[in-house]
Amino acid sequence: MHVAITGNIGAGKTTLAQMLANHYGWDVLFEAVEGNPYLADFYGDMERWAFNLQIYFLNSRFEQVKTIRDSGKSVIQDRTIYEDAFIFAKNLYETGQMTPRDYETYRGLFENMLSLVRPPDLMIYLRADLPKLVRQIQKRGRSYEMSISEDYLASLNDLYEQFAVDYKVGELLIIDVNELNYAERPDDFRFVTKVIDEHLASRVNARTSLV
Ligand SMILES: Nc1ncnc2c1ncn2[C@@H]1O[C@H](COP(=O)(O)OP(=O)(O)OP(=O)(O)O)[C@@H](O)[C@H]1O
User: Fold this and answer.
1) From edge to edge, which strands make up the β-sheet containing 122-127?
2) Ligand 1 test: best mutation among 29, 31, 48, 106, most atoms within 8 Å of CB?
3) Cα 189 to Cα 139, 145, 156, distances in angstroms
4) Coil, strand or helix at 169
5) What pLDDT shows up at residue 35?
6) Ligand 1: lining residues by beta carbon, under 6 Å
7) Contact of 60 with 52, CB cutoff 8 Å
8) Is 158 known to be catalytic?
9) How far apart are CA 116 and CA 169, in angstroms?
10) Deoxynucleoside kinase domain location, by residue (predicted)?
11) Which of 4, 149, 162, 205 has the highest local Cβ count within 10 Å?
12) What ipTM describes this predicted complex?
């Protein structure tokens, strides 16, 4: 079983991935944030560091793809390779912060990698509106994320919504997390696991469901 959690910055993926891993006894794979050599610089000057950061994330995510393939265990993954390309890199290109030739080079590499990527058995999209994202980013208080603008989050959210519509290579479960606080309210976490259990039980019937 390979489950992946997808969603915008501050949606609550990392917390939920850890909680689900504990609950179901799955291994968990996090994103490369600590020790990421580009992330802080990227938030200071996106245009300068866009290509470098995207290559770094693409490589680290591809490493995870290989780990998942070779592990033979049930794994939950915090964010996927699809988001790097279809959301983050695309947004940088569309907003003029990644040049066409860099984007083309990046996409060529991504397409090559994609031929070796097996989609997760279940993708869980945590849908959150801007106020929720902003609150969570401020709450965790990473200094380099304080420069994230609402425009940036809004563009990413638009691309996430498009991604949810276009995602056809596997099953997608959409959970609206605007009113949920599973980190602090056990009932909310029970709600999420119930939805996942139901979805896993009815996998043959539905490819996309929404709660
Ligand atoms: N491909 C990418 N391009 C640009 N920034 C990225 C990319 N992938 C991840 N990031 C950034 O790296 C950091 C990852 O932090 P983290 O793992 O805590 O996840 P997050 O996106 O904030 O999610 P959550 O709060 O839902 O756990 C965020 O600032 C995120 O936007």
Assistant:
1) 27-29, 75-78, 2-6, 122-127, 172-176, 208-210
2) 31
3) 20, 27, 26
4) coil
5) 86
6) 7, 9-14, 31, 33, 39, 53-54, 57, 84, 88, 136, 145
7) no
8) no
9) 14
10) 4-198
11) 4
12) 0.90
Mutational pocket test of ligand 1: of 29, 33, 94, the residue with most ligand atoms within 8 Å of the beta carbon: 33
Q: Supply the residue whose CA is at minimum distance from atom 19 of ligand 1.
A: 9
Side chain identity, residue 105: T
Q: pLDDT per position in the chain (211 positions), as tens? A: 899 999 999 999 999 999 999 999 999 998 877 889 999 999 999 999 999 999 999 999 999 999 998 988 999 999 999 999 999 999 999 999 999 999 999 999 999 999 999 999 999 999 999 999 999 999 999 998 999 999 999 999 999 999 999 999 999 999 999 999 999 999 999 999 999 999 888 875 555 556 6
Contact status, residue 122 vs residue 173, Cβ threshold 8 Å: yes
Given the residues 27, 41, 45, 78, select the one marked as catalytic. 78
Specify the CATH superfamily of domain 2-210: P-loop containing nucleotide triphosphate hydrolases (3.40.50.300)
Cβ neighbours for 28, distance < 8 A, ≥ 6 positions apart: 17, 18, 21, 75, 76, 77, 78
Nearest CA residue ID for atom 22, ligand 1: 9
Ligand 1, atom 6, lies closest to the CA of 88
CA atoms within 13 A on the CB side of 83: 23
